[in-house]
């Protein structure tokens, strides 16, 4: 996800990627942070996909240094969020492009025997010991973050249009 602070190091490899995702379960994305917000999804993909509550055992939603959005890291807790379904290939491409290099895509086992892909922190990512707060994000950052998402999308679409034109 876009941010104003320094980027974390790029991962050297991805555990899973678009090819793997599309061959196993192309439309289930476990979201635990800013992608839980309808406003953010609308800014990025113009809609809120079908979604149901979901939990990922053995994962923790952590604060990231100098960022308002969280990361998902292994932990003793159970991360709560939603499982988004029905994402189109184009929507996946937009979300893949949007995500910060601090993340890698990994298929997670959820508490109700479902699976979902999630953007989790790569092992080299800087994380904090504190949990990310949905309430603090909502109260202090959500409107500005939605604006940033909309601006990112405009830039992304302009780049896509330029690439297609050349």
UniProtKB/TrEMBL annotation:
Residues 1-21 are annotated as: Disordered. Keywords: Transferase. It comes from the Bacteria. The keyword Transferase applies. Residues 29-133 form the Gamma-glutamylcyclotransferase AIG2-like domain. GO terms for molecular function: transferase activity. This is Putative gamma-glutamylcyclotransferase. It comes from Actinomadura craniellae.
């Amino acid at each position: 996800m876009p941010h104003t602070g320094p980027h974390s190091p790029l991962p050297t490899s991805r555990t899973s990627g678009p090819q793997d995702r599309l061959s196993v379960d192309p439309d289930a994305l476990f979201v635990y942070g800013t992608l839980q917000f309808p406003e953010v999804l609308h800014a990025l993909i113009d809609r809120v996909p079908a979604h149901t509550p979901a939990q990922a055992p053995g994962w923790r939603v952590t604060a990231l240094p100098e960022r308002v959005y969280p990361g998902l890291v292994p932990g003793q807790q159970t991360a709560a969020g939603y499982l988004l379904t029905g994402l189109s290939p184009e929507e996946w491409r937009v979300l893949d492009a949007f995500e910060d290099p601090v993340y890698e895509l990994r298929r997670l086992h959820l508490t109700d025997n479902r699976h979902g892909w999630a953007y989790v922190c790569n092992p080299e990512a800087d994380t904090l010991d504190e949990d990310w707060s949905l309430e603090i994000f909502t109260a202090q950052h959500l409107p500005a973050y939605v604006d940033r998402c909309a601006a990112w999308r405009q830039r992304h679409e302009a780049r896509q249009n330029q690439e297609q034109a050349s």
